[in-house]
Amino acid sequence: KYSIFFALILSATSFLFSFFGGFLKNNRLSKVGNNSAISVFLLVVTASFSLIYLLMIRDYRVKYVANHVNNSLEAFYRFSAFWGGQEGSLMLWLLLLCLYCFLVIRQNQKRNLDLMPFVVGTLMVTAFFFLFLLSFMTLPFDLNDVPPMDGKGLNRLLQDWGMVIHPPNLYIGYVGYVVPFSFCIAALI
Q1: C-alpha to C-alpha distances, 64 to 84, 88, 94, 142, nearest whole angstrom
Q2: DSSP string, 51-74
Q3: Which among 87, 45, 47 is positioned nearest to 66, based on CA atoms?
Q4: pLDDT attached to residue 48
Q5: CA distance linking residue 160 with residue 73, whole number of Å
Q6: Are 55 and 78 in contact (CB under 8 A)?
Q7: Whole-model pTM above 0.90?
């Protein structure tokens, strides 16, 4: 919960410093933007693994876990419950987005130096949108007032091996398009 909120703040910091660093041609500001983006990635990884852990141990104090896991659900499907609901699906989308941002920063440390502040800024504006949703609209770590003894379980239609591999593969492609989009926006700026 807190890692998502801190990631929200750092994503705003990252896109502001990145854009100001790019417009002012100030490498120090751009470096702060890059470091903030890497910190966002680490915080989102922490939040994602926390949610996966809660799903695996069936911690019904968390509403998302109670709504998508039950006592009879196999570990294979408890793991896939991470993207089985809206909150988890947004978390997966955000995790992949931040992973791509991290990889773009690492691969472009010595090249595309004029574009990179705007690329990172655009990626972080996108991450900010998802973090805002996860912080204020769809809360993945929202708690139950009274935890149930058993959860509702994963939707029967999602309990198939195809649904375990399909959404991550689909999201890898969908989220991947934000990288060329960010380079296009940077080139236009």
Answers
A1: 10, 8, 17, 7
A2: HHHHHHTT-TTBHHHHHH--TT--
A3: 87
A4: 97
A5: 12
A6: yes
A7: yes
